Amino acid sequence: MWGGRTGALLRAWGLWPAGVRGRRPLGCNAASLAGNNSPQCWNCGGPGVPKRGDGFFCPQCRALQPPDLTRDYFSLMDCNRAFAVDTAKLQNRYQQLQRLVHPDFFSQRSQTEKDFSEKHATLVNDAYKTLLAPLSRGLYLVS
Q1: pLDDT by residue (tens digit) across 24-33?
Q2: Three-class SS of 32-76
Q3: What does the alpha-carbon distance between residue 137 and residue 132 come to, in Å, rounded to a whole number?
């Protein structure tokens, strides 16, 4: 099932599909799992994602990197962590991020990048829906 280059990368990073005993879930950022502050690119093995910017793409090969599922919705959407949110700014940021990571833009890329794109788009959609509605925003703030 997980053969070839993808399987080798998963084994090298210590990642494996969720539900397989003794392994970590696939959806996590490799850097957060390893406790490493400088992640490596899954595609080229380069020094990794820069700390500045969104960190969605490798600076060397421009391959889409795995999403950081631990990232706060407010930081992802570039908003202050407060109940009052500028919805126009939130909508602009949502559109900007979707232009970067929407799966339609990765149709000619590798299956790994397609999967990462879907995960990024889902994360962005969840963050937008949560922060747009006042009730869900408030619940997210207190959780």
Answers
A1: 333 344 444 4
A2: HHHCCCCCCCCCCCCCCCCCCCCCCECCCCCCECCCCCCCCHHHH
A3: 7
